[in-house]
Amino acid sequence: MFDVIIVGCGPTGAMLAAELRLHGVRVLVLEKATEPASFVRIVGLHIRSIELMAMRGLLKRIHERGRQRPAAGFFAAINKPVPDGLNSAYAYLLGIPQPVIVKLLEEHAIGLGAQVRHGDAVAGFAQDGDGVTVELASGERLRSRYLVGCDGARSTVRKMLGVGFPGEPSRTETLMGEMEVGMPQEEVAAKVTEVRETDKRLIIGPAGVGLYRVVVPAAGVSARAEPPTLDDFKQQLRAVAGTDFGVHSPRWLSRFGDATRLAERYRVGRVLLAGDAAHIHPPIGGQGLNLGVQDAFNLGWKLAAQVRGWAPEALLDTYQAERHPVAEDVLDNTRAQMELLSVEPGPRAVRRLLAELMDFNEVNRHLIEKIAATGIRYDFGAGPDLLGRRLPDIDVKQGRLYGLLHGGRGLLLDRTERLTAGGWSDRVDYLGDATAALDAPCVLLRPDGHVAWIGDEQRDLDGHLARWFGTPH
Protein backbone atom coordinates (compact mmCIF):
# COMPACT_ATOMS: atom_id res chain seq x y z
CA MET A 1 0.00 0.00 0.00
CA PHE A 2 1.19 3.50 -0.87
CA ASP A 3 0.64 6.65 1.13
CA VAL A 4 -0.05 8.77 -1.95
CA ILE A 5 -0.63 7.92 -5.61
CA ILE A 6 -0.17 10.82 -8.00
CA VAL A 7 -1.72 10.64 -11.46
CA GLY A 8 0.38 12.54 -13.99
CA CYS A 9 4.13 13.15 -14.06
CA GLY A 10 4.24 16.64 -15.50
CA PRO A 11 5.89 19.47 -13.55
CA THR A 12 3.13 19.55 -10.93
CA GLY A 13 3.05 15.80 -10.30
CA ALA A 14 6.83 15.45 -10.21
CA MET A 15 7.23 18.41 -7.87
CA LEU A 16 4.52 17.12 -5.55
CA ALA A 17 6.15 13.69 -5.44
CA ALA A 18 9.47 15.26 -4.45
CA GLU A 19 7.86 17.40 -1.75
CA LEU A 20 6.15 14.36 -0.25
CA ARG A 21 9.35 12.32 -0.30
CA LEU A 22 11.14 14.99 1.75
CA HIS A 23 8.88 13.81 4.59
CA GLY A 24 9.28 10.09 3.99
CA VAL A 25 5.87 9.59 2.36
CA ARG A 26 5.58 6.47 0.16
CA VAL A 27 4.75 7.87 -3.27
CA LEU A 28 3.84 6.30 -6.61
CA VAL A 29 3.47 8.47 -9.72
CA LEU A 30 1.47 7.05 -12.64
CA GLU A 31 2.04 8.59 -16.07
CA LYS A 32 0.01 7.26 -18.99
CA ALA A 33 2.45 8.51 -21.64
CA THR A 34 5.32 6.19 -22.46
CA GLU A 35 7.46 8.85 -24.17
CA PRO A 36 8.01 12.60 -23.61
CA ALA A 37 6.02 15.00 -25.79
CA SER A 38 7.37 15.25 -29.34
CA PHE A 39 7.30 19.05 -29.35
CA VAL A 40 9.72 21.19 -27.38
CA ARG A 41 7.76 24.17 -26.06
CA ILE A 42 9.82 26.75 -24.20
CA VAL A 43 8.29 27.66 -20.85
CA GLY A 44 9.28 30.42 -18.45
CA LEU A 45 9.88 30.07 -14.75
CA HIS A 46 8.74 33.27 -13.08
CA ILE A 47 10.32 34.80 -9.98
CA ARG A 48 8.33 32.87 -7.37
CA SER A 49 8.94 29.51 -9.06
CA ILE A 50 12.66 30.30 -9.31
CA GLU A 51 12.63 31.07 -5.59
CA LEU A 52 10.97 27.73 -4.85
CA MET A 53 13.62 25.90 -6.88
CA ALA A 54 16.28 27.72 -4.86
CA MET A 55 14.53 26.64 -1.64
CA ARG A 56 14.99 23.00 -2.60
CA GLY A 57 18.51 23.26 -3.98
CA LEU A 58 17.42 22.73 -7.60
CA LEU A 59 18.28 26.08 -9.12
CA LYS A 60 21.84 25.33 -10.21
CA ARG A 61 20.72 22.31 -12.25
CA ILE A 62 17.90 24.28 -13.84
CA HIS A 63 20.09 27.28 -14.59
CA GLU A 64 22.47 25.05 -16.53
CA ARG A 65 19.65 24.20 -18.96
CA GLY A 66 17.76 27.51 -18.96
CA ARG A 67 18.13 30.96 -20.46
CA GLN A 68 17.78 34.07 -18.32
CA ARG A 69 15.88 37.16 -19.52
CA PRO A 70 14.61 40.35 -17.86
CA ALA A 71 11.45 40.24 -15.75
CA ALA A 72 9.60 42.67 -17.97
CA GLY A 73 7.28 42.92 -20.94
CA PHE A 74 5.19 39.83 -20.27
CA PHE A 75 1.92 41.45 -19.16
CA ALA A 76 -0.10 41.38 -22.40
CA ALA A 77 3.22 41.83 -24.24
CA ILE A 78 3.29 45.51 -23.25
CA ASN A 79 6.92 46.49 -23.60
CA LYS A 80 8.03 48.21 -20.40
CA PRO A 81 11.34 48.08 -18.49
CA VAL A 82 11.98 45.98 -15.39
CA PRO A 83 10.29 47.84 -12.51
CA ASP A 84 12.19 48.96 -9.45
CA GLY A 85 11.55 47.22 -6.13
CA LEU A 86 10.81 43.63 -7.16
CA ASN A 87 12.43 42.54 -3.87
CA SER A 88 13.86 39.20 -4.92
CA ALA A 89 17.34 37.79 -5.39
CA TYR A 90 15.92 36.11 -8.51
CA ALA A 91 14.20 39.02 -10.28
CA TYR A 92 14.30 37.55 -13.78
CA LEU A 93 12.52 35.08 -16.06
CA LEU A 94 14.17 31.75 -16.78
CA GLY A 95 13.25 30.16 -20.11
CA ILE A 96 13.66 26.40 -20.34
CA PRO A 97 12.29 23.67 -22.65
CA GLN A 98 9.31 22.00 -20.99
CA PRO A 99 10.60 18.43 -21.50
CA VAL A 100 13.83 19.48 -19.78
CA ILE A 101 12.16 20.88 -16.65
CA VAL A 102 9.86 17.84 -16.48
CA LYS A 103 12.86 15.50 -16.71
CA LEU A 104 14.80 17.43 -14.06
CA LEU A 105 11.88 17.41 -11.63
CA GLU A 106 11.16 13.73 -12.26
CA GLU A 107 14.81 12.86 -11.64
CA HIS A 108 14.67 14.94 -8.45
CA ALA A 109 11.61 13.01 -7.23
CA ILE A 110 13.14 9.64 -8.10
CA GLY A 111 16.39 10.64 -6.41
CA LEU A 112 14.40 11.24 -3.23
CA GLY A 113 12.79 7.78 -3.49
CA ALA A 114 9.56 8.29 -5.42
CA GLN A 115 8.42 5.49 -7.73
CA VAL A 116 7.43 6.57 -11.24
CA ARG A 117 5.67 4.28 -13.70
CA HIS A 118 5.20 5.28 -17.34
CA GLY A 119 2.55 3.75 -19.60
CA ASP A 120 0.02 3.23 -16.79
CA ALA A 121 -3.36 4.89 -17.35
CA VAL A 122 -5.98 5.14 -14.60
CA ALA A 123 -9.32 3.54 -15.52
CA GLY A 124 -11.14 4.17 -12.26
CA PHE A 125 -10.94 4.58 -8.50
CA ALA A 126 -13.06 4.27 -5.40
CA GLN A 127 -12.43 5.80 -1.99
CA ASP A 128 -13.50 4.69 1.45
CA GLY A 129 -12.74 5.70 5.02
CA ASP A 130 -9.26 4.20 4.96
CA GLY A 131 -7.96 4.97 1.49
CA VAL A 132 -8.41 4.85 -2.27
CA THR A 133 -8.43 1.82 -4.57
CA VAL A 134 -7.07 2.73 -8.01
CA GLU A 135 -7.78 0.55 -11.05
CA LEU A 136 -5.41 0.77 -14.02
CA ALA A 137 -6.33 0.22 -17.67
CA SER A 138 -4.33 -3.02 -17.47
CA GLY A 139 -6.71 -4.30 -14.79
CA GLU A 140 -4.17 -3.98 -11.98
CA ARG A 141 -5.48 -2.59 -8.71
CA LEU A 142 -3.45 -0.44 -6.35
CA ARG A 143 -4.21 0.81 -2.88
CA SER A 144 -3.26 4.20 -1.42
CA ARG A 145 -4.24 6.41 1.47
CA TYR A 146 -4.62 9.44 -0.83
CA LEU A 147 -4.89 10.10 -4.56
CA VAL A 148 -3.89 13.35 -6.29
CA GLY A 149 -4.90 14.16 -9.87
CA CYS A 150 -2.13 16.10 -11.61
CA ASP A 151 -3.25 14.77 -14.98
CA GLY A 152 -3.86 17.95 -16.93
CA ALA A 153 -6.74 19.89 -18.43
CA ARG A 154 -8.66 16.77 -19.48
CA SER A 155 -8.09 15.20 -16.06
CA THR A 156 -9.45 11.69 -15.72
CA VAL A 157 -9.33 12.02 -11.94
CA ARG A 158 -11.40 15.22 -11.93
CA LYS A 159 -14.03 13.77 -14.26
CA MET A 160 -14.35 10.53 -12.31
CA LEU A 161 -14.52 12.52 -9.08
CA GLY A 162 -17.50 14.44 -10.48
CA VAL A 163 -16.04 17.85 -9.68
CA GLY A 164 -17.50 20.68 -11.77
CA PHE A 165 -15.16 22.60 -14.06
CA PRO A 166 -17.08 25.79 -14.86
CA GLY A 167 -15.77 28.58 -17.03
CA GLU A 168 -15.63 29.55 -20.69
CA PRO A 169 -14.78 27.33 -23.67
CA SER A 170 -12.23 28.43 -26.24
CA ARG A 171 -13.34 31.37 -28.34
CA THR A 172 -10.09 31.64 -30.27
CA GLU A 173 -7.19 29.35 -31.05
CA THR A 174 -3.54 29.99 -31.77
CA LEU A 175 -1.15 27.95 -33.89
CA MET A 176 2.35 27.40 -32.57
CA GLY A 177 5.29 25.42 -33.91
CA GLU A 178 8.95 25.33 -34.83
CA MET A 179 10.01 25.37 -38.47
CA GLU A 180 12.45 26.81 -40.96
CA VAL A 181 11.76 29.97 -42.96
CA GLY A 182 12.71 30.94 -46.50
CA MET A 183 13.36 34.64 -45.85
CA PRO A 184 16.53 36.26 -44.49
CA GLN A 185 16.44 36.84 -40.75
CA GLU A 186 16.53 40.63 -41.04
CA GLU A 187 13.51 40.61 -43.38
CA VAL A 188 11.59 38.35 -41.00
CA ALA A 189 12.38 40.62 -38.05
CA ALA A 190 11.38 43.77 -39.96
CA LYS A 191 8.08 42.31 -41.10
CA VAL A 192 7.18 40.97 -37.66
CA THR A 193 7.99 44.35 -36.09
CA GLU A 194 5.71 46.04 -38.61
CA VAL A 195 2.80 43.65 -38.03
CA ARG A 196 3.12 43.74 -34.24
CA GLU A 197 2.48 47.47 -34.27
CA THR A 198 -1.19 46.53 -34.61
CA ASP A 199 -1.35 42.76 -33.90
CA LYS A 200 0.63 41.47 -30.91
CA ARG A 201 -0.55 37.91 -31.52
CA LEU A 202 2.09 37.26 -34.20
CA ILE A 203 5.43 36.00 -32.90
CA ILE A 204 8.29 34.73 -35.07
CA GLY A 205 11.72 34.38 -33.56
CA PRO A 206 14.83 32.15 -33.58
CA ALA A 207 14.43 28.84 -31.73
CA GLY A 208 17.79 27.23 -32.43
CA VAL A 209 20.11 26.74 -35.37
CA GLY A 210 18.05 27.30 -38.53
CA LEU A 211 14.74 27.05 -36.65
CA TYR A 212 12.09 29.64 -35.86
CA ARG A 213 9.31 29.60 -33.30
CA VAL A 214 6.11 30.68 -35.05
CA VAL A 215 2.96 31.78 -33.23
CA VAL A 216 -0.02 33.01 -35.27
CA PRO A 217 -3.79 33.29 -34.69
CA ALA A 218 -5.86 30.41 -36.12
CA ALA A 219 -8.80 30.94 -38.47
CA GLY A 220 -11.26 29.64 -35.87
CA VAL A 221 -11.76 27.06 -33.16
CA SER A 222 -11.11 23.50 -34.30
CA ALA A 223 -13.69 20.86 -33.45
CA ARG A 224 -10.91 18.26 -33.43
CA ALA A 225 -7.89 17.91 -31.17
CA GLU A 226 -5.59 17.15 -34.09
CA PRO A 227 -2.48 19.29 -34.62
CA PRO A 228 -2.53 21.85 -37.46
CA THR A 229 -0.80 21.33 -40.80
CA LEU A 230 1.96 23.40 -42.36
CA ASP A 231 -0.63 24.67 -44.87
CA ASP A 232 -2.70 25.97 -41.93
CA PHE A 233 0.32 28.01 -40.83
CA LYS A 234 0.96 29.35 -44.32
CA GLN A 235 -2.67 30.38 -44.75
CA GLN A 236 -2.81 32.20 -41.42
CA LEU A 237 0.56 33.88 -41.85
CA ARG A 238 -0.58 35.27 -45.20
CA ALA A 239 -3.84 36.48 -43.63
CA VAL A 240 -2.09 38.23 -40.73
CA ALA A 241 1.22 39.34 -42.24
CA GLY A 242 0.63 39.26 -45.99
CA THR A 243 3.37 36.63 -46.44
CA ASP A 244 3.97 33.07 -45.29
CA PHE A 245 7.69 33.82 -44.76
CA GLY A 246 8.50 30.73 -46.83
CA VAL A 247 7.97 28.46 -43.84
CA HIS A 248 8.92 24.82 -44.38
CA SER A 249 10.36 21.70 -42.71
CA PRO A 250 8.40 21.89 -39.44
CA ARG A 251 9.89 20.26 -36.35
CA TRP A 252 6.56 20.21 -34.52
CA LEU A 253 3.15 21.89 -34.85
CA SER A 254 0.44 22.42 -32.25
CA ARG A 255 -2.58 24.53 -31.38
CA PHE A 256 -3.90 25.93 -28.13
CA GLY A 257 -7.13 27.64 -27.17
CA ASP A 258 -8.15 30.27 -24.62
CA ALA A 259 -10.51 28.12 -22.55
CA THR A 260 -10.72 29.35 -18.95
CA ARG A 261 -12.02 27.00 -16.26
CA LEU A 262 -11.60 26.46 -12.52
CA ALA A 263 -12.50 23.35 -10.54
CA GLU A 264 -15.28 23.94 -8.02
CA ARG A 265 -13.37 21.96 -5.40
CA TYR A 266 -9.75 20.94 -5.00
CA ARG A 267 -10.53 18.10 -2.60
CA VAL A 268 -13.21 15.47 -2.16
CA GLY A 269 -12.35 13.23 0.79
CA ARG A 270 -9.07 11.48 0.06
CA VAL A 271 -8.79 12.68 -3.54
CA LEU A 272 -7.25 16.03 -4.47
CA LEU A 273 -6.53 18.02 -7.64
CA ALA A 274 -3.54 20.19 -8.57
CA GLY A 275 -2.13 21.95 -11.61
CA ASP A 276 -4.05 21.97 -14.88
CA ALA A 277 -6.43 19.35 -13.49
CA ALA A 278 -7.72 22.13 -11.22
CA HIS A 279 -7.46 25.16 -13.50
CA ILE A 280 -6.88 26.08 -17.14
CA HIS A 281 -6.45 29.45 -18.77
CA PRO A 282 -4.85 31.05 -21.84
CA PRO A 283 -1.04 30.79 -21.86
CA ILE A 284 -0.59 34.56 -22.11
CA GLY A 285 1.95 35.65 -19.49
CA GLY A 286 3.31 32.09 -19.16
CA GLN A 287 1.70 31.36 -15.79
CA GLY A 288 0.35 27.82 -16.20
CA LEU A 289 3.37 25.70 -15.29
CA ASN A 290 4.24 28.11 -12.49
CA LEU A 291 0.77 27.97 -10.98
CA GLY A 292 0.88 24.16 -10.93
CA VAL A 293 4.34 23.94 -9.38
CA GLN A 294 3.25 26.41 -6.72
CA ASP A 295 0.15 24.27 -6.04
CA ALA A 296 2.51 21.35 -5.40
CA PHE A 297 4.61 23.36 -2.94
CA ASN A 298 1.52 24.42 -1.04
CA LEU A 299 0.00 20.95 -0.94
CA GLY A 300 3.08 18.77 -0.45
CA TRP A 301 3.97 19.49 3.18
CA LYS A 302 0.31 19.61 4.23
CA LEU A 303 -0.52 16.23 2.71
CA ALA A 304 2.69 14.80 4.17
CA ALA A 305 1.65 16.09 7.60
CA GLN A 306 -1.70 14.36 7.19
CA VAL A 307 -0.02 11.10 6.23
CA ARG A 308 2.55 11.32 9.02
CA GLY A 309 -0.16 11.96 11.59
CA TRP A 310 0.83 15.37 12.96
CA ALA A 311 -1.36 17.65 10.82
CA PRO A 312 -3.68 20.00 12.74
CA GLU A 313 -7.33 19.23 12.02
CA ALA A 314 -7.94 21.87 9.33
CA LEU A 315 -4.45 21.98 7.75
CA LEU A 316 -5.30 20.05 4.59
CA ASP A 317 -8.36 22.25 4.02
CA THR A 318 -6.09 25.30 3.79
CA TYR A 319 -4.81 23.97 0.44
CA GLN A 320 -8.04 24.91 -1.32
CA ALA A 321 -8.62 27.98 0.88
CA GLU A 322 -5.25 29.40 -0.18
CA ARG A 323 -4.77 28.18 -3.75
CA HIS A 324 -8.30 28.50 -5.19
CA PRO A 325 -8.30 32.33 -4.87
CA VAL A 326 -4.81 32.46 -6.42
CA ALA A 327 -6.08 30.52 -9.44
CA GLU A 328 -9.12 32.81 -9.68
CA ASP A 329 -6.78 35.78 -9.89
CA VAL A 330 -4.67 34.13 -12.60
CA LEU A 331 -7.78 33.34 -14.63
CA ASP A 332 -8.87 36.96 -14.36
CA ASN A 333 -5.53 38.42 -15.36
CA THR A 334 -5.27 36.11 -18.38
CA ARG A 335 -8.81 37.07 -19.42
CA ALA A 336 -7.76 40.71 -19.22
CA GLN A 337 -4.55 40.11 -21.15
CA MET A 338 -6.38 38.31 -23.94
CA GLU A 339 -8.74 41.28 -24.31
CA LEU A 340 -5.71 43.57 -24.51
CA LEU A 341 -4.39 41.55 -27.46
CA SER A 342 -7.54 42.17 -29.49
CA VAL A 343 -7.17 44.15 -32.72
CA GLU A 344 -10.58 45.80 -32.18
CA PRO A 345 -10.59 49.59 -31.57
CA GLY A 346 -12.00 49.43 -28.01
CA PRO A 347 -9.45 47.00 -26.56
CA ARG A 348 -6.65 48.78 -28.44
CA ALA A 349 -7.66 52.04 -26.75
CA VAL A 350 -7.64 50.34 -23.34
CA ARG A 351 -4.22 48.89 -24.14
CA ARG A 352 -2.84 52.34 -24.95
CA LEU A 353 -4.25 53.70 -21.69
CA LEU A 354 -2.78 50.83 -19.65
CA ALA A 355 0.59 51.31 -21.37
CA GLU A 356 0.53 54.94 -20.17
CA LEU A 357 -0.32 53.84 -16.61
CA MET A 358 2.54 51.31 -16.65
CA ASP A 359 4.95 54.22 -16.99
CA PHE A 360 4.28 54.63 -13.25
CA ASN A 361 6.69 52.21 -11.56
CA GLU A 362 4.09 51.12 -8.98
CA VAL A 363 1.65 50.03 -11.69
CA ASN A 364 4.33 48.24 -13.69
CA ARG A 365 5.62 46.45 -10.58
CA HIS A 366 2.10 45.47 -9.46
CA LEU A 367 1.37 43.77 -12.78
CA ILE A 368 4.75 42.04 -12.94
CA GLU A 369 4.36 40.80 -9.35
CA LYS A 370 0.88 39.52 -10.20
CA ILE A 371 2.26 37.30 -12.96
CA ALA A 372 5.45 36.44 -11.09
CA ALA A 373 3.32 35.38 -8.05
CA THR A 374 5.47 37.37 -5.62
CA GLY A 375 2.55 39.58 -4.61
CA ILE A 376 0.51 36.71 -3.09
CA ARG A 377 -0.59 37.16 0.50
CA TYR A 378 -2.48 34.28 2.13
CA ASP A 379 -5.07 35.26 4.73
CA PHE A 380 -3.58 34.27 8.09
CA GLY A 381 -5.58 36.86 10.01
CA ALA A 382 -4.73 40.37 11.16
CA GLY A 383 -1.10 41.34 11.42
CA PRO A 384 1.80 43.12 9.73
CA ASP A 385 1.86 43.25 5.93
CA LEU A 386 4.56 40.55 5.83
CA LEU A 387 2.23 38.02 7.51
CA GLY A 388 1.03 35.53 4.91
CA ARG A 389 3.56 36.63 2.31
CA ARG A 390 6.64 34.78 1.13
CA LEU A 391 9.94 35.83 2.69
CA PRO A 392 12.61 36.71 0.11
CA ASP A 393 15.99 34.96 0.13
CA ILE A 394 17.56 37.28 2.69
CA ASP A 395 21.11 37.22 4.04
CA VAL A 396 21.61 35.24 7.24
CA LYS A 397 24.77 34.37 9.13
CA GLN A 398 24.96 30.98 7.38
CA GLY A 399 24.71 32.51 3.91
CA ARG A 400 21.30 32.77 2.27
CA LEU A 401 17.97 31.92 3.87
CA TYR A 402 16.78 29.52 1.17
CA GLY A 403 19.80 27.31 1.72
CA LEU A 404 18.24 26.41 5.09
CA LEU A 405 14.96 25.23 3.50
CA HIS A 406 16.19 22.36 1.32
CA GLY A 407 14.66 19.76 3.64
CA GLY A 408 11.11 21.08 3.32
CA ARG A 409 10.72 21.77 7.05
CA GLY A 410 9.44 24.85 8.85
CA LEU A 411 11.95 27.41 10.10
CA LEU A 412 11.95 29.68 13.14
CA LEU A 413 14.19 32.66 12.32
CA ASP A 414 14.82 34.44 15.60
CA ARG A 415 16.65 37.78 15.75
CA THR A 416 16.08 37.96 19.53
CA GLU A 417 17.96 34.65 20.00
CA ARG A 418 15.78 33.80 23.00
CA LEU A 419 12.83 31.87 21.53
CA THR A 420 12.65 28.16 20.76
CA ALA A 421 10.81 25.67 18.55
CA GLY A 422 10.56 23.45 21.63
CA GLY A 423 8.37 20.38 21.16
CA TRP A 424 8.07 21.08 17.43
CA SER A 425 11.80 20.72 16.75
CA ASP A 426 11.18 17.50 14.81
CA ARG A 427 9.20 19.55 12.25
CA VAL A 428 10.64 23.06 12.59
CA ASP A 429 14.30 24.09 12.39
CA TYR A 430 15.70 26.98 14.44
CA LEU A 431 18.10 29.77 13.53
CA GLY A 432 18.99 32.40 16.08
CA ASP A 433 20.57 35.26 14.17
CA ALA A 434 20.60 38.85 15.41
CA THR A 435 22.23 39.92 12.12
CA ALA A 436 19.57 38.53 9.76
CA ALA A 437 18.37 41.07 7.17
CA LEU A 438 14.85 41.00 8.58
CA ASP A 439 12.66 43.89 9.70
CA ALA A 440 10.98 41.88 12.46
CA PRO A 441 12.11 40.35 15.76
CA CYS A 442 11.20 36.78 14.80
CA VAL A 443 9.30 34.98 12.04
CA LEU A 444 7.94 31.46 11.69
CA LEU A 445 8.23 30.17 8.13
CA ARG A 446 6.13 27.34 6.73
CA PRO A 447 7.89 24.80 4.49
CA ASP A 448 6.65 26.73 1.43
CA GLY A 449 8.44 29.88 2.62
CA HIS A 450 5.36 31.87 3.67
CA VAL A 451 5.45 33.79 6.95
CA ALA A 452 3.06 32.15 9.41
CA TRP A 453 3.83 34.31 12.47
CA ILE A 454 5.68 37.51 13.44
CA GLY A 455 6.47 38.47 17.02
CA ASP A 456 8.75 38.07 20.03
CA GLU A 457 6.66 36.24 22.68
CA GLN A 458 7.13 32.49 23.25
CA ARG A 459 3.53 31.85 24.35
CA ASP A 460 2.15 33.51 21.20
CA LEU A 461 4.66 31.59 19.09
CA ASP A 462 3.61 28.27 20.65
CA GLY A 463 0.01 28.90 19.64
CA HIS A 464 1.02 29.43 16.02
CA LEU A 465 3.36 26.45 16.03
CA ALA A 466 0.39 24.34 17.11
CA ARG A 467 -1.82 25.94 14.44
CA TRP A 468 0.52 24.99 11.60
CA PHE A 469 2.56 22.07 12.94
CA GLY A 470 0.19 20.23 15.26
CA THR A 471 0.73 18.82 18.75
CA PRO A 472 4.29 19.03 20.10
CA HIS A 473 6.15 15.76 20.57
- For the termini, the CA-CA separation is 27 Å
Give the helix level as a range of percent.
25-40%
- Number of extended strands: 24
CATH class of the largest domain: Alpha Beta
Describe the biggest sheet?
8 strands, mixed
Q: Determine Rg (CA atoms, Å).
A: 23 Å
GO molecular function: FAD binding; oxidoreductase activity, acting on paired donors, with incorporation or reduction of molecular oxygen, NAD(P)H as one donor, and incorporation of one atom of oxygen
Keywords: FAD, Flavoprotein, Monooxygenase, Oxidoreductase
Pfam families: FAD_binding_3 (PF01494), Rng_hyd_C (PF21274)
Cofactor: FAD
What would your notes on this structure say?
The chain is an alpha+beta fold and 473 residues long. The chain has three domains: 2-167 and 261-372, FAD/NAD(P)-binding domain (3-Layer(bba) Sandwich), CATH 3.50.50; 173-257, Alpha-Beta Plaits (2-Layer Sandwich); 395-469, Glutaredoxin, CATH 3.40.30.120. Helix content is 32%, strand content 23%. It has twelve helices and 24 strands. It has helices at 11-21, 47-55, 59-65, 98-111, 156-161, 185-195, 230-241, 288-308, 317-340, 345-357, 361-372, 458-469, and strands at 2-7, 27-31, 42-45, 67-70, 92-97, 115-118, 122-127, 132-136, 141-149, 167-168, 173-180, 203-206, 212-217, 248-257, 260-262, 267-268, 271-273, 279-280, 395-396, 399-400, 410-414, 428-432, 442-445, 451-454. Strands 1, 2, 6, 7, 8, 9, 16 and 17 form an eight-stranded mixed sheet that branches. A four-stranded antiparallel sheet has the order 12-13-11-14. A four-stranded mixed sheet has the order 22-21-23-24, covered by helices on one side. Helix 1 (11-21) links the parallel strand 1 and strand 2 (27-31). Helix 1 (11-21) runs parallel beside helix 4 and helix 8 runs antiparallel to helix 9. The longest helix has 24 residues, at 317-340. The protein is globular. The two termini are 27 Å apart. The mean pLDDT is 95. This is Monooxygenase. Keywords: FAD, Flavoprotein, Monooxygenase, Oxidoreductase. GO terms for molecular function: FAD binding; oxidoreductase activity, acting on paired donors, with incorporation or reduction of molecular oxygen, NAD(P)H as one donor, and incorporation of one atom of oxygen. Residues 2-334 form the FAD-binding domain. Pfam families: FAD_binding_3, Rng_hyd_C.
